[in-house]
């Protein structure tokens, strides 16, 4: 092997070592990105669960308020019936009716407010679900890129190992060439190994 060939092989080895170093650095950056995405996903999932729980609680509150409205309306009807039957108790019953009417209005207002909050919570939940889906897609893309880069890195590592073996073989055989081994014999021997 000529000195030029050996120098070329040494340059190639240095280039491969630099590429391996670059791949290690890029791999570390990808690990940081993956960790950040996992944190975002965990935070997003926790917020989604919180909103889901809040939505369920508000739904229960709406249902409870609606039940109260129905009960109050039934009570109001009962009192109105009694009012018609008992003219002597008109003043007292009218006061009860007025109080129940006011309570019904307050409860209906509360129901409307709760329904509005429920709609807002559902909207936030849907927006969060869309954001979550986007983060999952981004994470999947990063994972695919990472897998591809890792495969390329492993392939480069294999190529580096093969290059080191060839370089070592050439260095070992170069000594025999220097002792006068015929180049044809050397190439034949190299092909056989």
Automatic annotation (TrEMBL):
It comes from the Eukaryota. Residues 37-50, 68-90 have a biased composition (Basic and acidic residues). Residues 52-67 have a biased composition (Polar residues). Residues 37-93 are annotated as: Disordered. This is Uncharacterized protein. It comes from Friedmanniomyces simplex.
């Amino acid at each position: 092997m000529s000195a030029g060939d050996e120098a070329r092989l040494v340059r190639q080895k240095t280039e491969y070592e630099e590429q391996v170093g670059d791949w290690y650095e890029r791999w570390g950056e990808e690990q940081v990105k993956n960790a950040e995405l996992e944190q975002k996903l965990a935070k997003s999932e926790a917020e989604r669960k919180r909103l889901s729980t809040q939505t369920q609680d508000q739904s229960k509150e709406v249902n409870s308020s609606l039940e109260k409205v129905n009960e109050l309306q039934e009570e109001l009807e009962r009192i109105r019936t009694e009012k018609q039957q008992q003219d002597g108790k008109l003043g007292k019953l009218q006061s009860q009716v007025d109080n129940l009417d006011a309570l019904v209005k307050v409860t209906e207002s509360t129901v409307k407010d709760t329904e509005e909050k429920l709609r807002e919570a559902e909207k936030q939940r849907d927006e969060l679900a869309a954001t979550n889906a986007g983060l999952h897609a981004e994470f999947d893309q990063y994972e695919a890129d990472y897998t591809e880069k890792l495969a390329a890195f492993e392939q480069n590592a294999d190529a580096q190992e093969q290059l080191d073996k060839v370089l070592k073989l050439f260095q070992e055989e170069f000594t025999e060439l220097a002792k006068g081994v015929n180049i044809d014999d050397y190439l034949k021997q190299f092909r056989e190994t």
